[in-house]
# Entry
Amino acid sequence: MEPIFAHERVLGPRFMGTVNWRGLWTLYLKEVRRFLNVFTQTLLAPVITSLLFLAIFALALGGAGRQAAGIPFIEFLAPGLIMMTMIQNSFANTSSTILIAKVQGNIVDILMPPLSASELTLGIAGGGVTRGLMVGLAAGLAMWIFVPLRIHDPAVLLFHAVNASLMLSLLGMIGGIWAEKFDHIAAVTNFVITPFSFLSGTFYSTERLPETWQIVAHFNPFFYMIDGLRYGFIGRADGSIVLGLLAVPAVNACLYLLAHRMFATGYRLKP
Amino acid sequence: MTPFAARPPAPRRFGPVNGRGVYALYKRETVRFYRFAWETLAGPAISALMFLAVFHLALGGGEVRPGIGLSVFIGPGIVMFMMAHGAFEGGAIPILFHKLEGMITDVMSAPLTPLEILAGYVLPATGGALTIGAVVLALVAVFVDLPVHSLTAIVGFAVAASLLLALLGLVVGICVERWDGYSAVETFLVAPLGFLSGAFFPIDNLPEKVRWVFHFNPVFQAVEGFRYGFIGEAQTSLALAALVLAAMGLVLGLVAWRMLAVGYRIKP
# Structure
């Protein structure tokens, strides 16, 4: 069609290759800006909470004498708390973004654009991972003021930080798609995520558990994430490091496929 | 003659207190509490059990003071912690929600005095907190063999602390204008008051110099008084605890009452 006015330009279709990079980047930025907009709730609050946990455990111990796994308890505790904070916040970020979008109806804004299921999964998970890493870093720096944190193996540390944030982001996404009301996601948070993040060796060495529970603990992926991150700091692990390096990405791959499938079929997303 | 004579209903008469109005507000918030029982009741119950498990595993049992096991010491602290938190949430969230959604006009235009409105918000929050306390206490008692020293102290401090925190919640709910503000108050004021209240650790572990600061924390006074009801000893004098709770409750009650009366941040 001829333009009516000479200076008017016709907006042609945008061409993209196999991946809609601009769309993916836009979705990611939207996710990050969403939580940065309310950073008191999403960054500051978790850091303060983890510092309070550090304080009560340090005080409850009654002096510096107590040790866990051969090192001062407080140095044992700090990595566990960092991981717990990352777990809870990555999950909260992706589950809330999807559920709020579903309840308010603006989920169409991400389902309508030319974004494939993998781009949706990666874009939203990226937001959750970013929040997890930012909260973890902030909590770590805040604790460093009070606890002498040494880094034994930065590669393992980073590996587990990224993979744990990714796992919980994917879980949050799956939970958010499955849930239909805020009640549902509150139940998942209360009965699954919080107990797992509390009871997977955050506050104690699993050597303290009775024999049978130790075996159960070794089937829990959260245990490998907490144990692995702690290894990155203190250089000592309860379980096998190699197994953790293999198992956690394997779980992530399965969760990714599930989340991808949900977006592809529109399970509880499209009418 | 019309079949349905349009006679306006006679005006309802009530004495100095609009009891039915207060009851209606009470019932509305209590129904809300039970409708969201997964979050309001089951959440604290699960958290309480996890705190108990974690402290037991991390600290490996043992005794806090001669004759007082760690679980017996922490158990009442956890119950009070959950009650205090529930009371604050129950006091703050409803009024903030009503303000944001514009429903506050329904309350403000009803024939209720400021004091009745105050009661209509604070009583259900207190009732909810006491329900949380009863449920958590029952669960803790399953795992911990709790002695009972003074039932009066247990009930008295439970009611006083719930009322105080509900009033604090109401004042905060009136003052803040967004969820962000509420979250900030919860993070920077209420969470520290709760965690640093001696609910989870005996303050004898602290250096002498900082111990006196704790006495200004009403949650500390409430925890110690409540725990006295079980184990029969406290780090503070019971009279002081009762005095602090009563004085702070009175001040907050007056502030909340004046705020409702003048419509501070409620009426345009």
Q: What stands out?
A: The first strand of chain A starts at residue 67 and ends at 68. Chain A touches chain B through 35 residues (CB under 8 Å). The radius of gyration of chain A is 21 Å. Chain A has a mean pLDDT of 91.
